């Protein structure tokens, strides 16, 4: 019992069943590696906060230190400050959604919203629908509650509604709890759901009785094409998730949910036990950023910068990548999804890439239980300069070329069978 | 499907099993009522942040807006910033605990730590031990994972070890997952666990194979008596929870866990899905508050102020409360626990008290499934002035007196049986 003894943790056998299948995030593990200064990182989806004007940060923080200090430092209500909710209602109006503060709950980033929805609605074995591949943080949030996640493939118009309908037909009406989608510049796919598919998705939700969770972190980062109306603008039963992480700063951990009041009441109940309430301090800073600073001008700077980087990455892929590779062409957001022949394993290739000074995110992390995507990778263009992106893609192409060369010899010898990238993407 | 129709939430039947038994917090419901200006609130455990010097707040925030801006605004690691962890190691050293940053994880208040521990370790039906009554936020955090919480009564020396041992004897070795305790100035009890009982608790943990979670939000707010060594100082397998909410500001939502590294690895795994990472911004502010400002002087101001308020409340209880009532005499913290004869229902009495301009927290919320405590109440002395505390207790005594008068008549007539407050506390 004495602290003089070295005693190791003896709680290994006490871990809950839900934890046994959890996987640590490859992205997060890579953040550590990516801190080596010679490595160019295409792995993390980190916004470039150096674009934020220091004067705007100071101005937004002044309120928290002065006028609103008493509120900012104290406990707040579980659902968040009404003044900050009003700011989010104004942001929603810009993108075609009308809502009131009573239909808004503030969360610790959209990630907490994913956890609260899963906690309030998923029983073990419940069927959840999502794009496949999809955001790995959503898979992590859901997995704690042990659902059966069914992945629906996408193409350049977003989730394939014919495949969704076939899956629903198999599952039956009322058997899926909800569908999770990132309709704009999907993570990791980069694709955007077309207006026609959005309409169809909502028809299927009605017909097969499931609710839709629309995650929209990148919606305001569009570089080409016109705005597509959010699902929530078409149907007020849709649960919409927003965040300031990509249009302001992730360090504030502030997101929001727009949903029917009775839905929010359930999230409120589970949030009380999860973290009591969010940071009033951060909510005050966010409120003042969106009311006292020229944030639209700053957002335009983000858009211009990321557009240049996306263009640089797409040009470099065209220039360096082998003909066996295909990739998506995002109109916004942070990511390009690359598909290689299915005999390439992007997981084991990562250590070689790291050695050559470039990182990416292997594709299998974006599928439940790494059930697919072994030949795919996510490339983030948001954080590096155009010059670095060109150099990173050049390095990565060389790594891939080495892998392919070996396999081409095997294929020529008839030892393995060639597959098309399209087939591999399924 | 059109948004022109008013459609109500249709997800009521989709809620997860774990939510069905959850109760909303009476304390949180009361926060709303307590905002009426004529009401004196004895319900919420809110620190008096008006005691914080504005210059210290500004100084702590300056770093987040200037030198450390890039880090403060960006995503951070799931376990928290090492610089802020070091600050917490220094705070731990002050109270007799040696630990390294690698043994620390930063959480969104200690509340998130409770959720993460429950998420990582509780399977439905698992036995958890705790003081009864105990912190209702802990009961809420645990209840999402559907444990069987066994409550052990306390007296003026804290949790009754004879009763704990009897319970363990009944349960058997290796059958309880963990024991949750607030050894210093317990919430809601106000009692402190004696050194002898702390030693005995750790012996029982070893003998019956469960781990101990030590929640210590109030440890540095001691008004009388000498410092008692934390459980973590006696055994490095103890999981210690700290928070800045009571010594700095709850609006920053910053707490920490000290535990063996392999234990923290499990919390890290579940935290990735829960909220990805905490607010780097808040961690920078907290770090600089505890390094760049005279926080010890500010802490002394908190201690002096709360001591005066505790004294005022205890004096008022002595002056106004009826002989049938008993209450605890806390040496620190925020709360006094009052026990009334068991025919008094503090839940139904609350509306009468509100009407007379005073609030408190009914006792049953501090027991799992409101299984006891109906004749008890928690009184918080932390937030009101000594004058207001005297007036609040005067008002509350009148409400209680009205209830007792009625029952005394019944007892005299032999219609109901009198019970001692001691028996009622069980």
Automatic annotation (TrEMBL), chains A, B:
<dbReference type="InterPro" id="IPR015424">
    <property type="entry name" value="PyrdxlP-dep_Trfase"/>
</dbReference>
<dbReference type="InterPro" id="IPR004839">
    <property type="entry name" value="Aminotransferase_I/II_large"/>
</dbReference>
<dbReference type="InterPro" id="IPR015421">
    <property type="entry name" value="PyrdxlP-dep_Trfase_major"/>
</dbReference>
<dbReference type="Pfam" id="PF00155">
    <property type="entry name" value="Aminotran_1_2"/>
</dbReference>
<keyword id="KW-0032">Aminotransferase</keyword>
<dbReference type="InterPro" id="IPR015422">
    <property type="entry name" value="PyrdxlP-dep_Trfase_small"/>
</dbReference>
<keyword id="KW-0808">Transferase</keyword>
<dbReference type="InterPro" id="IPR050859">
    <property type="entry name" value="Class-I_PLP-dep_aminotransf"/>
</dbReference>
<keyword id="KW-0663">Pyridoxal phosphate</keyword>
<feature type="domain" description="Aminotransferase class I/classII large">
    <location>
        <begin position="38"/>
        <end position="396"/>
    </location>
</feature>
<protein>
    <submittedName>
        <fullName>GntR family transcriptional regulator</fullName>
    </submittedName>
</protein>
